[in-house]
Amino acid sequence: MEKQRVEWWHRRSERLLKTGLFITLFTIGLMVMYALHVLFGWNIPFDLLRICNQWMKSHGWLSVSHLLETLVLCTFVLYISYGLDQWYGSFRAMRRFRELENHHLSAVYNERYSPDGQNVFLIVACEQPLALTMGIINRRIVLSEGLLSLLNEEERQAVLHHELFHYHQHDPLTTFLLRQSACALWFLPVVRTLALHYKISREILADNYAIERLGTAVGIGGALLKLVKRSRSRLEIPARMIYSSFADTSLNYRIQRIIDPQSGASPRLPWWSILVSLPVLILLSILLLWSLIE
Protein backbone atom coordinates (compact mmCIF):
# COMPACT_ATOMS: atom_id res chain seq x y z
CA MET A 1 0.00 0.00 0.00
CA GLU A 2 1.30 3.43 -0.89
CA LYS A 3 2.63 5.61 1.91
CA GLN A 4 -0.02 8.29 1.27
CA ARG A 5 -2.75 5.67 1.43
CA VAL A 6 -1.43 4.36 4.74
CA GLU A 7 -1.38 7.88 6.16
CA TRP A 8 -4.98 8.31 4.97
CA TRP A 9 -6.01 5.20 6.91
CA HIS A 10 -4.15 6.45 9.98
CA ARG A 11 -5.98 9.80 9.80
CA ARG A 12 -9.31 8.07 9.22
CA SER A 13 -8.73 5.78 12.18
CA GLU A 14 -7.82 8.73 14.41
CA ARG A 15 -10.86 10.74 13.30
CA LEU A 16 -13.22 7.83 13.94
CA LEU A 17 -11.82 7.30 17.44
CA LYS A 18 -11.86 10.98 18.40
CA THR A 19 -15.38 11.49 17.03
CA GLY A 20 -16.73 8.48 18.87
CA LEU A 21 -15.10 9.49 22.16
CA PHE A 22 -16.23 13.11 21.79
CA ILE A 23 -19.87 12.09 21.29
CA THR A 24 -19.59 9.75 24.27
CA LEU A 25 -18.01 12.31 26.61
CA PHE A 26 -20.49 14.98 25.54
CA THR A 27 -23.57 12.82 26.10
CA ILE A 28 -22.39 11.00 29.21
CA GLY A 29 -21.15 14.29 30.69
CA LEU A 30 -24.59 15.86 30.38
CA MET A 31 -26.19 12.82 31.97
CA VAL A 32 -23.71 12.85 34.87
CA MET A 33 -24.55 16.50 35.62
CA TYR A 34 -28.25 15.69 35.45
CA ALA A 35 -27.83 12.71 37.79
CA LEU A 36 -25.87 14.81 40.31
CA HIS A 37 -28.70 17.33 40.38
CA VAL A 38 -31.38 14.64 40.84
CA LEU A 39 -29.48 12.73 43.53
CA PHE A 40 -27.84 15.55 45.51
CA GLY A 41 -29.68 18.66 44.41
CA TRP A 42 -26.54 20.20 42.95
CA ASN A 43 -27.34 23.15 40.73
CA ILE A 44 -24.64 22.85 38.16
CA PRO A 45 -24.53 25.68 35.61
CA PHE A 46 -25.52 24.73 32.09
CA ASP A 47 -27.01 21.36 33.09
CA LEU A 48 -28.72 20.84 29.76
CA LEU A 49 -30.75 17.76 30.65
CA ARG A 50 -32.07 19.35 33.85
CA ILE A 51 -33.13 22.44 31.92
CA CYS A 52 -34.78 20.24 29.31
CA ASN A 53 -36.55 18.24 32.02
CA GLN A 54 -37.83 21.36 33.80
CA TRP A 55 -39.04 22.78 30.51
CA MET A 56 -41.01 19.61 29.76
CA LYS A 57 -42.52 19.58 33.26
CA SER A 58 -43.55 23.23 32.92
CA HIS A 59 -45.51 22.24 29.81
CA GLY A 60 -47.18 19.35 31.57
CA TRP A 61 -45.17 16.66 29.77
CA LEU A 62 -44.53 14.58 32.85
CA SER A 63 -44.47 11.35 30.90
CA VAL A 64 -41.72 12.70 28.66
CA SER A 65 -39.67 13.86 31.63
CA HIS A 66 -40.02 10.41 33.16
CA LEU A 67 -38.80 8.91 29.90
CA LEU A 68 -35.80 11.20 30.06
CA GLU A 69 -34.96 10.04 33.59
CA THR A 70 -35.40 6.43 32.46
CA LEU A 71 -33.08 7.03 29.52
CA VAL A 72 -30.37 8.43 31.78
CA LEU A 73 -30.69 5.51 34.19
CA CYS A 74 -30.63 2.90 31.41
CA THR A 75 -27.56 4.52 29.85
CA PHE A 76 -25.60 4.33 33.12
CA VAL A 77 -26.70 0.73 33.71
CA LEU A 78 -25.74 -0.35 30.19
CA TYR A 79 -22.39 1.49 30.30
CA ILE A 80 -21.33 0.00 33.63
CA SER A 81 -22.75 -3.49 33.08
CA TYR A 82 -21.13 -3.81 29.65
CA GLY A 83 -17.75 -2.84 31.07
CA LEU A 84 -18.02 -5.27 33.98
CA ASP A 85 -19.22 -8.05 31.68
CA GLN A 86 -16.26 -7.55 29.34
CA TRP A 87 -13.75 -7.43 32.20
CA TYR A 88 -15.16 -10.60 33.74
CA GLY A 89 -15.29 -12.32 30.35
CA SER A 90 -11.65 -11.42 29.73
CA PHE A 91 -10.68 -12.80 33.13
CA ARG A 92 -12.44 -16.12 32.42
CA ALA A 93 -11.00 -16.34 28.90
CA MET A 94 -7.45 -15.71 30.09
CA ARG A 95 -7.83 -18.31 32.83
CA ARG A 96 -9.00 -20.84 30.22
CA PHE A 97 -6.16 -19.96 27.86
CA ARG A 98 -3.61 -20.46 30.63
CA GLU A 99 -5.08 -23.92 31.30
CA LEU A 100 -4.57 -24.77 27.62
CA GLU A 101 -1.14 -23.13 27.30
CA ASN A 102 1.66 -24.99 25.55
CA HIS A 103 4.49 -23.71 27.73
CA HIS A 104 7.26 -24.97 25.45
CA LEU A 105 5.90 -23.23 22.34
CA SER A 106 5.10 -20.07 24.33
CA ALA A 107 8.72 -19.91 25.51
CA VAL A 108 10.00 -20.45 21.96
CA TYR A 109 7.85 -17.70 20.46
CA ASN A 110 8.57 -15.25 23.29
CA GLU A 111 12.31 -15.80 22.92
CA ARG A 112 12.20 -15.47 19.14
CA TYR A 113 9.62 -12.73 18.51
CA SER A 114 8.74 -10.96 21.74
CA PRO A 115 9.88 -7.33 22.05
CA ASP A 116 12.37 -6.84 24.92
CA GLY A 117 12.03 -10.49 25.94
CA GLN A 118 8.63 -9.98 27.55
CA ASN A 119 6.09 -12.76 27.90
CA VAL A 120 3.83 -11.50 25.15
CA PHE A 121 2.89 -14.66 23.27
CA LEU A 122 0.67 -17.36 24.71
CA ILE A 123 0.31 -20.50 22.57
CA VAL A 124 -2.72 -22.63 23.43
CA ALA A 125 -3.46 -26.28 22.61
CA CYS A 126 -6.47 -25.78 20.38
CA GLU A 127 -7.16 -27.28 16.95
CA GLN A 128 -9.21 -24.33 15.75
CA PRO A 129 -7.30 -21.39 14.16
CA LEU A 130 -7.13 -18.58 16.67
CA ALA A 131 -5.11 -15.34 16.72
CA LEU A 132 -5.98 -12.36 18.90
CA THR A 133 -4.56 -9.70 21.17
CA MET A 134 -6.42 -9.37 24.44
CA GLY A 135 -6.27 -7.38 27.65
CA ILE A 136 -5.71 -3.75 28.53
CA ILE A 137 -2.97 -3.64 31.18
CA ASN A 138 -1.36 -7.08 30.88
CA ARG A 139 -1.86 -7.54 27.16
CA ARG A 140 -1.11 -10.93 25.60
CA ILE A 141 -1.11 -12.26 22.04
CA VAL A 142 -2.93 -15.59 21.98
CA LEU A 143 -2.25 -18.04 19.13
CA SER A 144 -3.54 -21.58 18.76
CA GLU A 145 -1.59 -24.65 17.69
CA GLY A 146 -4.24 -25.17 15.01
CA LEU A 147 -3.42 -21.80 13.46
CA LEU A 148 0.34 -22.38 13.56
CA SER A 149 0.01 -25.78 11.89
CA LEU A 150 -2.38 -24.41 9.24
CA LEU A 151 -0.01 -21.64 8.08
CA ASN A 152 3.43 -21.82 6.49
CA GLU A 153 6.37 -19.90 7.96
CA GLU A 154 5.79 -16.72 5.93
CA GLU A 155 2.10 -16.65 6.84
CA ARG A 156 2.88 -17.23 10.51
CA GLN A 157 5.30 -14.31 10.45
CA ALA A 158 2.62 -12.10 8.90
CA VAL A 159 0.06 -13.00 11.59
CA LEU A 160 2.62 -12.37 14.34
CA HIS A 161 3.43 -8.89 13.02
CA HIS A 162 -0.28 -8.19 12.56
CA GLU A 163 -0.97 -8.98 16.20
CA LEU A 164 2.15 -7.11 17.37
CA PHE A 165 0.69 -4.00 15.73
CA HIS A 166 -2.48 -4.38 17.84
CA TYR A 167 -0.30 -5.04 20.90
CA HIS A 168 1.88 -1.93 20.49
CA GLN A 169 -1.02 0.35 19.54
CA HIS A 170 -3.25 -0.71 22.50
CA ASP A 171 -6.06 -1.56 20.08
CA PRO A 172 -7.99 -3.79 22.53
CA LEU A 173 -8.46 -0.73 24.79
CA THR A 174 -9.61 1.68 22.10
CA THR A 175 -11.97 -0.82 20.44
CA PHE A 176 -13.38 -1.71 23.86
CA LEU A 177 -14.11 1.95 24.67
CA LEU A 178 -15.98 2.46 21.40
CA ARG A 179 -17.93 -0.80 21.73
CA GLN A 180 -18.89 0.14 25.29
CA SER A 181 -20.11 3.52 24.05
CA ALA A 182 -22.04 1.90 21.20
CA CYS A 183 -23.82 -0.38 23.68
CA ALA A 184 -24.77 2.38 26.14
CA LEU A 185 -25.64 5.06 23.56
CA TRP A 186 -27.91 2.81 21.50
CA PHE A 187 -30.12 5.81 20.67
CA LEU A 188 -27.17 7.29 18.69
CA PRO A 189 -26.58 4.63 16.01
CA VAL A 190 -23.71 6.62 14.54
CA VAL A 191 -21.58 5.56 17.55
CA ARG A 192 -22.03 1.90 16.64
CA THR A 193 -21.11 2.71 13.04
CA LEU A 194 -18.00 4.60 14.18
CA ALA A 195 -16.95 1.63 16.32
CA LEU A 196 -17.34 -0.81 13.42
CA HIS A 197 -15.45 1.34 10.92
CA TYR A 198 -12.71 2.06 13.45
CA LYS A 199 -12.20 -1.69 13.90
CA ILE A 200 -11.97 -2.18 10.13
CA SER A 201 -9.40 0.64 9.89
CA ARG A 202 -7.25 -0.89 12.61
CA GLU A 203 -7.29 -4.31 10.90
CA ILE A 204 -6.23 -2.79 7.57
CA LEU A 205 -3.41 -0.86 9.27
CA ALA A 206 -2.30 -4.03 11.07
CA ASP A 207 -2.28 -5.89 7.72
CA ASN A 208 -0.18 -3.12 6.21
CA TYR A 209 2.24 -3.20 9.16
CA ALA A 210 2.81 -6.91 8.54
CA ILE A 211 3.37 -6.26 4.83
CA GLU A 212 5.91 -3.52 5.60
CA ARG A 213 7.83 -5.72 8.03
CA LEU A 214 8.00 -8.67 5.62
CA GLY A 215 8.30 -6.67 2.40
CA THR A 216 5.55 -8.66 0.70
CA ALA A 217 1.79 -9.18 0.90
CA VAL A 218 2.05 -12.89 0.16
CA GLY A 219 2.13 -13.94 3.82
CA ILE A 220 -0.82 -11.92 5.11
CA GLY A 221 -2.86 -12.62 1.97
CA GLY A 222 -2.23 -16.35 2.21
CA ALA A 223 -3.18 -16.41 5.89
CA LEU A 224 -6.44 -14.56 5.24
CA LEU A 225 -7.37 -16.85 2.33
CA LYS A 226 -6.77 -19.97 4.42
CA LEU A 227 -8.89 -18.58 7.25
CA VAL A 228 -11.71 -17.75 4.83
CA LYS A 229 -11.68 -21.38 3.65
CA ARG A 230 -11.76 -22.52 7.27
CA SER A 231 -14.37 -19.97 8.33
CA ARG A 232 -17.07 -22.58 8.80
CA SER A 233 -14.95 -24.49 11.26
CA ARG A 234 -13.29 -21.43 12.78
CA LEU A 235 -13.59 -21.09 16.52
CA GLU A 236 -16.29 -18.65 17.47
CA ILE A 237 -14.55 -16.12 19.66
CA PRO A 238 -16.73 -15.11 22.59
CA ALA A 239 -17.79 -11.48 22.45
CA ARG A 240 -17.55 -11.21 26.25
CA MET A 241 -13.89 -10.27 26.33
CA ILE A 242 -11.63 -7.33 25.51
CA TYR A 243 -9.66 -8.22 22.40
CA SER A 244 -8.62 -7.50 18.82
CA SER A 245 -8.83 -10.54 16.56
CA PHE A 246 -7.01 -11.31 13.33
CA ALA A 247 -9.90 -12.97 11.52
CA ASP A 248 -13.26 -11.67 12.64
CA THR A 249 -13.52 -8.39 10.74
CA SER A 250 -14.10 -7.78 7.00
CA LEU A 251 -11.97 -10.65 5.70
CA ASN A 252 -13.11 -10.32 2.08
CA TYR A 253 -12.58 -6.55 2.04
CA ARG A 254 -9.09 -6.89 3.49
CA ILE A 255 -8.17 -9.53 0.92
CA GLN A 256 -9.36 -7.23 -1.86
CA ARG A 257 -7.24 -4.38 -0.47
CA ILE A 258 -4.19 -6.65 -0.45
CA ILE A 259 -4.72 -7.97 -3.97
CA ASP A 260 -5.31 -4.51 -5.45
CA PRO A 261 -4.80 -1.60 -3.02
CA GLN A 262 -6.04 0.92 -5.60
CA SER A 263 -9.31 -0.82 -6.38
CA GLY A 264 -12.58 -0.65 -4.58
CA ALA A 265 -14.11 2.20 -2.65
CA SER A 266 -13.25 2.76 0.99
CA PRO A 267 -16.11 1.89 3.35
CA ARG A 268 -18.33 4.87 3.95
CA LEU A 269 -20.37 5.69 7.00
CA PRO A 270 -24.05 4.87 6.26
CA TRP A 271 -26.07 8.05 5.95
CA TRP A 272 -29.04 6.66 7.84
CA SER A 273 -27.07 6.39 11.09
CA ILE A 274 -25.88 9.99 10.73
CA LEU A 275 -29.36 11.26 9.83
CA VAL A 276 -30.88 9.54 12.85
CA SER A 277 -28.18 10.67 15.30
CA LEU A 278 -27.48 14.18 14.07
CA PRO A 279 -30.85 15.73 15.09
CA VAL A 280 -30.34 14.53 18.66
CA LEU A 281 -26.88 16.08 18.87
CA ILE A 282 -28.05 19.30 17.20
CA LEU A 283 -30.96 19.58 19.64
CA LEU A 284 -28.61 19.16 22.59
CA SER A 285 -26.24 21.77 21.20
CA ILE A 286 -29.03 24.31 20.61
CA LEU A 287 -30.38 23.82 24.12
CA LEU A 288 -26.87 24.22 25.53
CA LEU A 289 -26.43 27.56 23.75
CA TRP A 290 -29.87 28.61 24.94
CA SER A 291 -28.93 27.77 28.54
CA LEU A 292 -25.79 29.90 28.16
CA ILE A 293 -27.91 32.86 27.07
CA GLU A 294 -30.36 32.28 29.91
Walkthrough of the structure:
The mean pLDDT is 82. A hairpin with a 5-residue loop joins strand 2 and strand 3. The chain is built from 11 helices and 4 strands. The protein has 294 residues and is mainly alpha-helical. The termini are far apart. The chain has a domain at 75-273. It is elongated and about 70 Å long. Helix 6 crosses helix 8 and helix 9 (218-229) packs antiparallel against helix 10 (251-259).
List the helices and strands and how they pair.
Blueprint: H1 3-40, H2 48-58, H3 62-99, H4 103-113, E1 121-124, E2 131-134, E3 140-144, H5 145-150, H6 153-169, H7 171-184, H8 189-214, H9 218-229, E4 243-245, H10 251-259, H11 271-293
Parallel strand pairs: 1-3
Antiparallel strand pairs: 2-3, 2-4
